[in-house]
Structures are given as structure tokens and as C-alpha cells.
Design brief:
With about 675 residues, this protein is an alpha+beta fold. Helix content is about 20%, strand content about 40%.
Length: about 675
């Protein structure tokens, strides 16, 4: 303890020599001045009640003014917008199957400190998304339904049915994907659920903003402010003169591209202003020292749609047999394959096909003149036939008149027959020659994609380690270790001139943080110098002598130093305290009965440790002094209590999935 006292006196002596110089030169008793200043501060801020009345109330209530330490000056110091006691709270309860059997959302809608809206999600939560959740059969990934978070104009949160394409950043949390995923990663699950809910609230009402977030193993609590009640600091703080107004800031929620432009503009305007916060932070020693140690990179899958129009045409000559009439059509086999066909009939039309000509080509009686294929099957392509024109011209033959005909499958309809106009009234089968031609226009959207990997150099650098990874909003790597979460495939819609093609991929965007190299700090010279100073220091009551090594161009040189020490007051080895207790009757009830049934006698004690004032124990009425004012050493008892609490709070949940014995240490 003596060395501690000397260090304290030494520090005080150095401070006084710098700030006051020689006390005798100015006629100031530094010790007395310090004691007076300390007592003045303690009298105003030295107790819980005084801190509340002199700091907390003036900062949260405009009717209470803050005062200087000496009480001579009063001034307003209220916060611009005090936060709500509890703006939003989300509580989760996992089930034995890993699904969340309960998600309860509590809200303070008007930020008056009172919870006035509570919503319980009515279904299991089997998967968590950045903007909603997935509900499946317990412990499985079957019969899944999809929901997004939604909120009304007042901010009341609920869930709305959706499709998988409406969700993003989804991952499975129940036992079909792993053991105890929620318990092991509860902080991430809560953050993602809470973030989606807060985003829904912001979307419906941009006046809410978040000021603080607290989490425990099953609950996440958001503290918020209503921005419409805030004042712009730019009116009173010169450094904030160029700051956007509150209305401008809240407007970024619905006009987020403008935020990027405002950011770039602010950076450019402040980069050359030494008095701006941007300049001071970006040029600080800490910012320069941190460069190159932590690197953030992205891997992006980018898709695009290109639309092309293809034309197909051909022509030729042929002959056919007919008893009387000829019909033509464009037959659709599938979206990419078509057939140009004709049908010969008797005088009764299609019901009298092949009179005197025989045969049933094609199975349905239609003869194929030419098959046409406009493209090949490809899930990345989306096509539309714009025209499908088939012509039979110069039709003529013995016993027949001459005729020509045309049909367009797009206009007339595929498989719609059109009579050519040729008639062969002569008895029996007649031979007809003809010229044929076709012209097809086919428009096609083609989806292509590429992967831009900006992390390749860091991933291949043996001196870099992956610290964090976020894939489509799912945290898969954190603090240099995998989280156990795997993102689910997600889909995006890409629209071209033909239509919208839904493309599904395992991932679209990866954000990674790598830590490269090691901290380039070398304190070995500092340690050498410090160690010599400390080991050689000698307290001679009136002064403190020591040896101070200095590193120069030729090596270490040792200089002798001395500090004059002021007169010191006697100091005790400890803070004198007393131990008191007050009797209480424990009436707690548990599942096994009342405490009085389990413990005899039922009376117990509350124990207090108090700092003595003028060597007197400040015991309250009814308290019994167990140990009077002295240096108290209750370490053994404190360690026993802490160990008892530690064992009582030992994890009763087998996070590994395997039962484990209770550990005593």
C-alpha cells in the first residue's frame, strides 16, 4: 500500500508543479486549494441524490436549470429529445424443436414510457429473414408459409402473408438445420428479428428513430426518440452549421439515394476544413494508425437482361392430293417449336378428310409442310413469338381452280384452320401443286450474370484472416468463427421487353471483413525504460530518486533523476468501513412450499457494508453493527457468495446437444 500512496503523491506533485509552479512563489497552498475544490465538487455531486438533482433532472426537465460547481451561474441543459423508457421490445421463446414457439412484441407507441401495444406472433418461427420470417411444421422444413413484418401509420407491428420472393436474408433456425442454433446464436437471431421489425416501423412512420439497443439471451430492447420533437443543434453549435435539418434526415428513409449524394457532398466540403469533424477524425492518429489492418470487401452477383429479335423465313414448292378442299394452319408444338400444316378434305370439309387420297399423316390428318424451331430451351431465356405467317401460293391442278392463302398463328390463333379457297370439283382425287413460304419474328429476353469478386486478393493472402462474413443479410462468420447459419437460396425478378424472369441463386451479395497482418506496435523500448525507472526508484521522504535510461543514436544512456516530494499527510491502509445487518422475515413461496416450511427459523438478515464517517458507523435505525469501523477483509465470504451465484446461474440448457454434468469450476 505504501507504493500506491507514493505514486499518488508523486502524481499530485507533478501536476502541481506544472499547473501552479512553485506554491511559495504565488503564496498559494496547493493542498488546501485542492481540498477545497474537491469538497466543493463533492458537495454538489457526491451522492446519488445530488447527482440526480444537479445533473439528471437538469438534462431531462426544462424546469430544472443546471448550475456551475460554485452555484453562481445557472443555464438550461436539457437534452433535445429524451429517449423513451422502452420504445420496442422483442422477446423470443425457443421450443424443443428449435422453432420459436413465441415471439412477443411490446411497443411504446407515443414514447411516454408506458407499453401500450403488445403483439404475439400467432405461428411458429422456423426461419428468420431480414424483413420477415418463415413458419413451417415444427422441427422440419415442410409446409412452409412466408410472412413479412408490417406496421400501420401509428407504428403497430404485425405480420403479413408473403411469398418467398418478398423475403431476403433468410436462414433456418429449427432442428432440421442444426442443433440449438437459436441458443448458440440468440444475439444474431434477436438482432435480425428486431431489425426487420424496426424497419417496418420506420417504413410506416419515419418520425421514430433508435437511440440505444440492449440484448440478453431471449430479449432485445430498443430505446427510441421521436424526431419531430428534436431541435437542430446547428442553431447553437458552430461545428454543426452545415448539418442537415431533422426533416431532411428523416426524408432519407424514403429517398435513400439522396443520402449517398449528401454524404459525398459533406465529405468533399469538410475534407479541406481543419475545424470540421470529418477532417479531424479522418486525419487523427487513430485513423492513420488503423489503415491497412482491417479491410472490408464484397462479392456481388450482378444480373442483366438483353432483348433480341430474331427472324426466321424459308420457301419452297411441293404438291398435294385432295378430293375437293384444302385447309392450312400453324400448329404449336410448344413455346419454341411450330409446324406449318395443310389438310385435304372432301366436299364436307375437315370432317371428310382424305376422301379418295387415303392415309392419316400426323395422326390427326394434318400434313406437315415444314417444322420451325425458334430457340432452344433455356431457363435464362424468356421468349415471345411476334408473328408466325404461313403462305400457300399458286395452288393449281387438273380439275381445280387456282388459289392462294395465308394464315398468321399469332393473329388468327395457333391451330386455327383457314380454308385456302381452292376447289377441285372434278370427281376423284386431284393433284395440286403449290408454292409455300413462312416468316416468323421471335423476341427473346436473355438473362446473363457475372460475379465481381473484390475479395479474391484478400482471400488468397496468407497474411489475412476472415473475421466477419454477411451473405444476403445472414451473418455466417463472426469474430473469426462460423456462426452455424447458412443462407437460404433467394430469388430476384429481372424484367425485359418480353416479361419478368425469376432467377434464383444460392447467394447474391457477400460482405466480408478481413484482418491482415498484425499490430505493428513495439513497446520493448518503452518497457525497458519504464522497468528501469520503477526498479531504481527510491523514496527518501524529501525526494524521489531514480535512474532514467535514454535511447540515443549510440545506444542506451542512463541519466539520474530526482523529484522533490511535498509533505504528506498520514494515509490509512484502507477505507475504514463497518458491517451491519437488519433482520427480515423471508416469506417466499416456491413449488415445494413456503420458505417457513423449509427453513427453521425463517428469519434471515440483509447485510450492509458502509463507509465510516469520522470513525463512526452510520447505522440506520434497526440495524445491528456486526463489525465496527476498521479495515474489513471479507474476501472469503465474498468469494463464497459469488461462487454460489455462479453455480445457481449455471447454464441448464445443453447448447451442444449433449447432456453434461454440472461443473464446479
Amino acid at each position: 500500500m505504501q507504493s500506491v500512496r507514493w505514486s499518488r503523491n508523486t502524481a499530485v506533485s507533478l501536476m502541481m508543479s506544472v499547473t501552479l509552479g512553485s506554491t511559495s512563489a504565488f503564496g498559494i497552498d496547493g493542498k488546501t486549494a485542492g481540498q477545497n475544490a474537491g469538497q466543493s465538487a463533492l458537495s454538489r455531486f457526491g451522492s446519488k441524490n445530488s447527482v440526480n438533482s444537479n445533473i439528471s433532472l437538469p438534462m431531462t426537465n426544462s424546469s430544472n436549470l443546471m448550475q456551475t460547481v460554485n452555484g453562481a451561474t445557472s443555464f438550461p441543459a436539457t437534452l433535445n429529445a429524451p429517449s423513451s423508457a422502452k420504445f420496442l421490445e422483442v422477446m423470443i421463446q425457443p421450443s424443443g424443436t428449435g422453432d420459436l414457439q413465441q415471439v412477443i412484441i411490446s411497443q411504446d407507441l407515443n414514447t411516454d414510457g408506458t407499453i401500450d401495444n403488445v403483439h404475439a406472433v400467432p405461428s411458429l418461427v422456423s426461419g428468420v429473414c431480414a424483413n420477415g420470417f418463415i413458419s413451417c411444421n415444427a422441427g422440419s422444413w415442410t409446409n412452409c408459409k412466408y410472412y413479412t413484418w408490417a406496421a400501420d401509420a401509428d407504428g403497430r407491428v404485425t405480420e403479413a402473408p408473403a411469398s418467398i420472393t418478398d423475403l431476403g436474408g433468410c436462414y433456418c433456425i429449427n432442428s432440421s438445420c442444426g442443433s440449438n442454433l437459436v441458443w448458440v446464436n440468440s444475439a444474431i437471431v434477436l438482432k435480425d428479428i428486431g431489425g426487420g421489425i424496426v424497419n417496418a416501423v420506420h417504413t410506416s412512420n419515419t418520425s421514430f428513430t433508435i437511440t440505444n439497443v440492449n440484448t440478453d439471451i431471449t430479449t432485445i430492447t430498443y430505446y427510441g426518440q421521436v424526431t419531430t420533437k428534436t431541435n437542430n443543434a446547428a442553431t447553437s453549435v458552430a461545428a454543426f452549421a452545415s448539418s442537415p435539418t431533422v426533416d431532411t434526415l428523416t426524408g432519407y428513409y424514403t429517398n435513400w439515394p439522396q443520402l449517398t449524394a449528401a454524404r459525398d457532398s459533406a465529405a468533399i466540403s469538410q475534407s479541406s476544413d481543419p475545424s470540421s469533424f470529418y477532417y479531424m477524425i479522418s486525419n487523427s492518429g487513430a485513423a492513420r494508425e488503423a489503415q491497412g489492418k482491417s479491410s472490408i470487401c464484397t462479392v456481388d452477383r450482378a444480373g442483366r437482361v438483353d432483348t433480341t429479335t430474331k427472324s426466321f423465313n424459308d420457301s419452297g414448292s411441293s404438291a398435294l392430293c385432295t378430293d375437293h378442299l384444302v385447309y392450312i394452319r400453324v400448329h404449336k408444338v410448344d413455346d419454341l417449336t411450330y409446324q406449318l400444316e395443310y389438310l385435304d378434305t372432301g366436299p364436307g370439309g375437315p370432317g371428310a378428310a382424305h376422301n379418295n387420297c387415303g392415309g392419316s399423316p400426323g395422326g390427326d390428318g394434318w400434313h406437315t409442310v415444314k417444322p420451325v424451331t425458334v430457340s432452344t430451351p433455356d431457363p435464362a431465356k424468356l421468349g415471345q413469338l411476334m408473328s408466325a405467317n404461313f403462305n400457300m401460293n399458286n395452288m393449281s391442278g387438273g380439275g381445280c381452280n387456282s388459289a392462294s392463302a395465308s394464315v398468321d398463328g399469332v393473329i388468327n390463333g395457333f391451330d386455327t384452320s383457314v380454308q385456302t379457297g381452292i376447289v377441285c370439283p372434278a370427281k376423284g382425287a386431284q393433284g395440286v401443286s403449290f408454292d409455300w413460304s413462312y416468316f416468323f419474328d421471335f423476341k427473346e429476353d436473355t438473362y446473363t450474370e457475372g460475379v465481381e469478386d473484390k475479395c479474391a486478393s484478400l482471400a488468397n493472402d496468407p497474411d489475412c484472416r476472415l473475421k466477419e462474413e454477411d451473405i444476403d443479410g445472414v451473418v455466417t462468420y463472426q469474430n473469426f468463427n462460423p456462426t452455424g447459419f447458412n443462407q437460404l437460396p433467394s430469388c430476384k425478378n429481372f424484367t425485359g421487353q418480353v416479361g419478368t424472369n425469376k432467377i434464383c441463386r444460392d447467394w447474391w451479395h457477400k460482405k466480408r471483413t478481413y484482418v491482415c497482418g498484425s499490430q505493428q506496435y513495439d513497446f520493448s523500448d518503452v518497457a525497458t525504460r519504464f522497468g528501469k525507472v520503477v526498479s531504481s526508484a527510491s523514496d527518501n521522504t524529501a525526494n524521489l530518486t531514480f535512474q532514467d535510461p535514454r535511447l540515443g543514436p549510440t545506444g542506451w544512456n542512463i541519466a539520474n533523476g530526482s523529484i522533490n516530494l511535498p509533505q504528506r499527510d498520514p494515509a490509512s491502509e484502507c477505507e475504514v468501513a463497518c458491517k451491519t445487518r437488519i433482520a427480515k422475515t423471508d416469506t417466499q413461496v416456491t413449488t415445494t412450499g413456503n420458505v417457513t416450511d423449509m427453513r427453521v427459523p425463517a428469519q434471515s438478515y440483509d447485510i450492509f457494508y458502509k463507509t465510516c464517517i469520522n470513525n463512526s458507523c452510520p447505522a440506520d435505525p434497526g440495524e445491528e453493527i456486526v463489525i465496527d469501523c476498521q479495515c474489513i477483509n471479507e474476501f472469503a465470504e465474498a468469494a463464497t457468495v459469488i461462487q454460489t451465484l455462479r453455480l445457481a446461474g449455471k447454464d441448464n440448457i445443453c447448447s451442444s446437444g449433449q447432456k453434461q454434468p454440472m461443473q464446479s469450476r
